[in-house]
Design goal:
This protein is α+β, with helices and mostly antiparallel strands and about 200 residues long. It folds into 2 domains: about 55 residues; about 90 residues, no CATH class. The protein is about 40% helix and about 25% strand. The chain contains 3 helices and 12 strands, in the order ααββββββββββββα. α1 runs antiparallel to α3.
Length: about 200
């Protein structure tokens, strides 16, 4: 077998193995999307206390699966004593800082895509400052856009791993075919014969 055929066959095998491993790793990264720790990512753990909100992110409120959605409530009071926004300036609060999601069967309607053991029950919209928090049950305050960015990055990395692995796998197949053709068609150079 000619050396060119051996090289292309060897490269093809290496690319097949590398592409397969890369595809599997990308798939595992995609499997991990949505698996994050609510307690670890939480900026504030209720039911009550003082909390400083930096206003850098929309805060999502999570509770454990055993908390009934209908009975949950939380009040955020800012430094001026307000518990919500007065949008029209009439002196009455139009919206509270906590916006509760719609409840269905004891949980929020969007609970199916939440991490295991928890569900999102609402969100907090507030300006920067210190808030006095009073909740009816324990809860976790998680930065929503930060989590979304991390999860999208993880998903993009997994997808790129899969696509890159498939591309390398395809190149490996082409290299194997070319190596096979070269192995069959090229002959090893013969030493010149001398006539005496």
């Amino acid at each position: 077998m000619h050396i060119a055929g051996k090289i292309f066959l060897g490269l093809g095998v290496l690319m097949l193995i590398g592409g397969g491993v890369m595809t599997m790793m990308g798939g595992e990264a995609l499997d991990d999307v949505g698996d994050w720790d609510v307690v670890e990512k939480s900026d504030f753990e209720g039911p009550s206390g003082e909390w400083y909100h930096s206003a850098d992110d929309l805060m999502i409120i999570f509770v454990t699966d055993d908390v009934d959605c209908e009975s949950f409530d939380v009040t955020y009071t800012n430094e001026t004593g307000a518990t919500g926004y007065d949008w029209d300036g009439d002196g009455q609060e139009d919206d509270s800082f906590f916006e509760k999601e719609e409840c269905k069967d004891g949980m929020s309607v969007s609970h199916e895509d939440d991490p295991d053991g928890f569900y999102s029950i609402g969100s907090f919209w507030g300006d920067e400052g210190t808030y006095t928090v009073e909740g009816s049950h324990g809860f976790y305050t998680v930065p929503g856009f930060e989590i979304l960015g991390e999860e999208l990055g993880e998903a993009a990395g997994g997808l790129m791993g899969i696509l890159g692995g498939i591309g390398i796998f395809g190149c490996g197949i082409c290299s194997l075919v070319l190596g096979g053709i070269l192995a069959l068609t090229l002959k090893d150079p013969q030493p010149p014969t001398q006539m005496m």
